[in-house]
Amino acid sequence: MIELTFLGHSSFLVGIQDKKILFDPFISPNAKAAHINVDELRADYVLLSHGHEDHVADAEKIAKASNATLVSNYEIAVWFAQKGVEKYHPMNHGGSKTFDFGTVKYVTAVHSSTLPDGASGGNPGGFVIKHEGGAFYYAGDTALTYDMKLIGESFKLDFAILPIGDNFTMGIEDAIIAADFVGVKKIVGMHFDTFPYIEIDLEKAKKTAAKAGKELILLNIGETIKL
User: Fold this and answer.
1) What percent of the chain has pLDDT over 70?
2) Is 72 in contact with 120 (CB distance < 8 Å)?
3) How far apart are CA 70 and CA 60, in angstroms?
4) How far is residue 26 from each of residues 59, 138, 141, measured CA to CA in Å?
5) Contact yes or no for 83/104 (Cβ under 8 A)
6) Which CATH number is 3-226 given?
7) pTM above 0.85, yes or no
8) Cα(99)–Cα(46) distance, integer angstroms
9) Per-residue pLDDT tens digits for 129-167
């Protein structure tokens, strides 16, 4: 069992044993997350799925304050190294690396990836985290892709963190298919309601998921659950 704290948009702080893993921190520019104090956030690892500002905005600040290891694709990891992040680990699609909290596999995402200054963010990805107590999938920003079937065939997942906001990523209907592909019944929703483009009917999304036999978990910003 792990602790999962939603920090808004696609940002989650995950506690695995005594380690804290932060995904895609976009907090200080997010008006909906104004009650979250970025200066107090600490992480042992910062995992970035791609280079868009709404996924990396607070990564440099938190990584430096925490002396965290930043993990992403090669282009993003090196970009942050050039900004003074001392501990970083570059990856690329299909690769795995074992850290002290578990094993990270960098998997395919279908999206785009440009860093805030216009530099190339390489190819976007997602992460499968396998730890002592189980495994989960953080999809990043992605379309539905048949490659997700490979994840379901390779891992026994407890849940998947999937985008549901549509327009730039999957919507709830495709997220349900993605959950089938990766073999989970629990979907933790992300990348919804932050901007007008991705505002959705949350009650309708929950009903759609329930009708398909899935549990759609929608956390309040700052809320922590155990999964």
Assistant:
1) 100
2) no
3) 9
4) 8, 16, 13
5) no
6) 3.60.15.10
7) yes
8) 12
9) 999 999 999 999 999 999 999 999 999 999 999 999 999
